[in-house]
Q: What sequence folds into this?
């Protein structure tokens, strides 16, 4: 299954079965996490037992308390940390989807109870719940491309398909507070419009956009009807 299919099929899941993740799948996740840590200068960690990460009333009410495991998204604190967490963390999320698992980016959690190691100069930004979902989640309503693209007008198919994939990116409260601009020189510019975890969102959006744009370019598609 390619990343286009994974992006389309993956939805946030908050309710999980009481079923452990198989050892071989855990190892695949850990390998991907190490790969992303190296590429993104991060310290993400797979925590097989979520423990009391989601012990707050809100999380219990929303179902995340049933998640068996979490991925702690940690890195050395600087201005780019949150965006890097989103960009590389989403790659781990899509692997989990490929392995038949379900996930949820979670910004509400008890940081003191996350069973992960962290250095003094590092920060725990967000966690990702992972396990076997009680369902497959559902697709949320997305903005129209014209609401996030500047300027309006004719655009190459690789850009339009990149935007389509970007609009399928999970964002906090489904806020989709970002803009994507195609510059005259063909470069692409992403703008964070602010909001809760918007920099993490932007990293996820950038990865989704790259997956879509690269797919069209690799296939030599020139017309959106070919997609």
A:
């Amino acid at each position: 299954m390619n990343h286009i299919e994974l992006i389309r099929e993956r939805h946030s899941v908050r309710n999980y079965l009481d079923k452990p993740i198989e050892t071989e799948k855990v190892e695949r996740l850990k390998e991907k996490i190490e790969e992303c840590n190296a590429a993104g200068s991060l310290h993400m960690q797979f925590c097989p037992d979520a423990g009391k990460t989601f012990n707050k009333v809100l999380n219990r009410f929303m179902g995340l308390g049933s998640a068996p495991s979490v991925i702690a998204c940690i890195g050395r604190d600087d201005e780019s940390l949150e965006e890097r967490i989103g960009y590389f963390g989403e790659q781990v999320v899509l692997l989990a989807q490929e392995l038949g698992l379900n996930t949820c980016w979670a910004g509400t959690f008890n940081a003191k109870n996350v069973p992960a190691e962290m250095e003094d100069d590092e920060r725990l930004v967000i966690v990702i719940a992972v396990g076997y979902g009680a369902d497959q989640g559902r697709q949320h309503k997305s903005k129209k491309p014209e609401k996030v693209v500047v300027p309006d007008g004719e655009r190459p198919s690789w850009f339009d398909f990149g935007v389509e994939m970007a609009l399928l990116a999970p964002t906090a409260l489904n806020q989709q507070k970002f803009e994507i601009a195609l510059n005259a020189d063909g470069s692409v510019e992403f703008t964070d419009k602010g909001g809760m975890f918007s920099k993490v969102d932007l990293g996820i959006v950038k990865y989704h956009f790259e997956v879509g744009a690269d797919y069209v370019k690799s296939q030599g598609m020139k017309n959106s009807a070919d997609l």
